[in-house]
UniProtKB/TrEMBL annotation:
The lineage of its organism: Bacteria, Pseudomonadati, Thermodesulfobacteriota, Desulfovibrionia, Desulfovibrionales. It is found in: Cell inner membrane; Cell membrane. Keywords: Amino-acid transport, Cell membrane, Membrane, Transmembrane, Transmembrane helix, Transport. This is Polar amino acid transport system permease protein. Belongs to the binding-protein-dependent transport system permease family. HisMQ subfamily. One of its GO terms (biological process) is amino acid transport. It comes from Desulfobaculum xiamenense. It comes from the Bacteria. Residues 67-283 form the ABC transmembrane type-1 domain. CDD domains: TM_PBP2. The chain crosses the membrane at residues 12-30, 73-93, 105-126, 264-283.
């Protein structure tokens, strides 16, 4: 028997909220139009999203290039942060006192420091120094041409790669602290009897974690990880302070050059909104799938 899905009812409070938002938008429009005497130039925004090059082909404009950099940075950050968070999350649930203290110190230090301060500390004192010590810039410039093209496609152009890697490392350390807590909570949510049964079977710690604990913890960890990816997209705007050419940085540069303050920032906000809403819908599907797997 097929279930009929009930249509959500529109309540008076919903109508009141919609009217309030519409009134706020109208008031802001009136303030900008009348009080600020602002000269809107929406017709120029299109060239910053898509433009034609010398051959007449459509290529990404400045804002679209920034959006693509934001997507690349967020994906790589999430991969690195998941690795860091998994290692530190397992350390937080370890029987070793040293590992638990190391994980606890990492989470406490990162989560209780303002992200902007953390960004400057990691960029100037750790990531930048580490990349210079490893001579990453020279190694990338000496790489074959196909490798440089691959790096430009998946990360950033060669001349921007050191800054991109610095921002990536900093964001990965920051987001990794939150993923650490997701992993810890997922592992600790597995019933104690499962640990005892695995121990009674004579499994090694690695086998207990691989065959018993993680298969049960993973469905509980993945949904919050999907939400963390959305947070990573929004948090990536902070790397604009170290001149990584992501969406916010491109918006600031464009605004300074054109003085199209409202058009630029409204477009930037809509691009972020489209990206995060798409990720939210995907995360919702992942969550529903794992929820069905648990039931």
């Amino acid at each position: 028997m097929m279930r009929t899905r009930k249509r959500p009812a529109v309540r008076p409070l919903d109508i009141a909220v919609i009217l309030a938002l519409a009134g706020l938008a109208a008031y802001m429009g009136w303030r900008v139009e009348i009080r600020l005497d602002y000269d809107w130039r929406w017709e120029l925004i299109g060239q910053y999203l898509l433009r034609r090059d010398a051959s007449g082909a459509l290529v990404p404009g400045v804002l679209t290039q920034g959006l693509l950099t934001t997507v690349r940075l967020s994906v790589w950050t999430m991969l690195a942060a998941t690795l860091i968070g998994t290692v530190m999350g397992l350390a937080r649930t370890s029987t070793s006192l040293f590992r638990r203290l190391a994980g606890q110190c990492y989470v406490g230090l990162v989560r209780n420091t303002p992200p902007l301060v953390l960004m400057f500390i990691f960029y100037f004192f750790l990531a930048d120094q580490l990349l210079n010590a490893l001579n990453v810039d020279a190694a990338v410039r000496a790489a074959p041409l196909w490798a440089q093209h691959a790096l430009a496609l998946t990360m950033a152009p060669v001349n921007e790669l050191p800054g991109f890697l610095s921002g990536l490392m900093t964001l990965a350390v920051y987001e990794g602290a939150y993923i650490t807590e997701h992993v810890r909570a997922g592992v600790q949510s597995v019933e104690r009897g499962q640990f005892e049964a695995a121990y009674a079977l004579g499994l090694s710690p690695w086998q207990r974690m691989r065959h018993v604990v993680m298969p049960q913890a993973l469905p509980r960890i993945v949904p919050p990880l999907a939400g963390q990816f959305i947070s990573t997209i929004k948090d990536s705007a902070i790397v604009s302070v170290i001149s990584i050419q992501e969406l916010t940085f491109q918006g600031m540069e464009l605004m300074a050059a054109t003085y199209m303050t409202f058009e630029i920032w409204i477009t930037v906000a809509l691009l972020y909104l489209a990206l995060t809403v798409a990720c939210s819908l995907a995360a919702r599907r992942v969550e529903l799938r794992f929820r069905r797997g648990l039931s």
